[in-house]
Amino acid sequence: MECERCHKTTSGYELHDYCAECGKNLCEDCMEKGCCGNVPASSGMQAAEEADAAEQLQEEEAEQLKDADFTVDTGLPNVEGQQGEIGQ
Q1: Which of 16, 20, 13 is nearest to 50 (CA)?
Q2: What is the pLDDT of residues 36-87, one digit of tens each?
Q3: Peptide bond just before 40 cis, omega within 30 deg
Q4: What is the DSSP string of 2-62?
Q5: Structural domain boundaries of the chain?
Q6: Beta bridge partners of 9
Q7: Around Cβ 43, how many Cβ atoms within 10 Å?
């Protein structure tokens, strides 16, 4: 992979991070120098990890709500099969 600013290349499995604002692939040195007005540059990898974690948390919370019991105890007797209108 090649840095889009200084054209430094990586070898093997080493990856460059990328600017979260514009998406440019940047080496560690260029990330530290900054991009899009942010010094250091906003990490695209970190932003993606945070978004994934937030999505996972949201899914877990939705699953918990699905299994939750929302029964409210009003203190009134529960009489099954009895129907009527308010005020009778």
Answers
A1: 20
A2: 999 999 999 999 999 999 999 999 998 888 877 777 777 787 666 665 555 5
A3: yes
A4: B-TTT--B--TT---EEBTTT--EE-HHHHHH-BTTBSSPPBHHHHHHHHHHHHHHHHHHH
A5: 17-66
A6: 2
A7: 17
